Amino acid sequence: MAESEVDLESEQYEKHREAGRILSQVREETAERVEVGASHLEVAEYAEDRIRELGGKPAFPVNISIDEEAAHATPSIDDDSTFGEEMINLDIGVHVDGWLADTAITVDLSGNPELAEAPEEALEAAIDVIEPGVETGEIGAEIEDVIDGYGFNPVVNLTGHGLGHWEQHTSPNIPNRAVSQGTTLEVGDVVAIEPFATDGGGKVTEGSSEEIFSLEREGNVRNRQARAALDQITEEFRTLPFATRWLETDRPKMALRRLKRSDIVHGYPVLKEDDGCLVSQKEHTLIVTESGCEVTTE
Ligand code: CO
Description:
By secondary structure, this protein is α+β, with helices and mostly antiparallel strands. Helix content is 30%, strand content 30%.
């Protein structure tokens, strides 16, 4: 007998499942709204409002990544951009009382169906090998194999991750390539697996724009707007990422600048491949079970 029994029917896992059910529905409904001419801001707000209507909360701002962008892009407060004939990744998260689900889908309006397909097939192959004791390096090898087979590169400096209570990125990392020093998955682990494929070099770098932030540490600020923002952050988002446009104080950008300068919050710069490249993505959250795994965002 195992020395520690994990109860997969406990409230914590039921909340992970509830977050996953809400998220699956929102992902599909949101993807349908992505079309040439549709507004980024309206699509992001649609998803975030639907999550709340269905009884969850957004676990992080809806990421809308275009073409060479891979992660951490979300519309600004006054964003007026619209979709074109592009490769579009939607990465969406839901939490129920801090228990998370995380999923992503690529909507291809650029006419590159194979690139959009590669991470989907890679994710299926990864899910197929998941069971207690599987090494994360083996999961990465499956992902790399499939994406290589399509003639594309996996993005190797982005990884899947564990999901903790009020924490969107915890150990273990799930690599998108074969690695030798990994860790093993155990019954009860909740992880997000997210293969990225690209026709670029397979390594993203930080861009200059930053619309997503999270709390770094407790602290005090004197400025009134910064203090109001900090109160909202600690009460509502806690340690989860949030967007500038979610802040209710007037002058949110100034408030954030002050909180950043005091190292109370940190930003997530947009991560991207080189100009002219395309990136696609697919992600599911799953719970490791005795016999394999249960995908909560199917
Ligand atoms: Co994720």
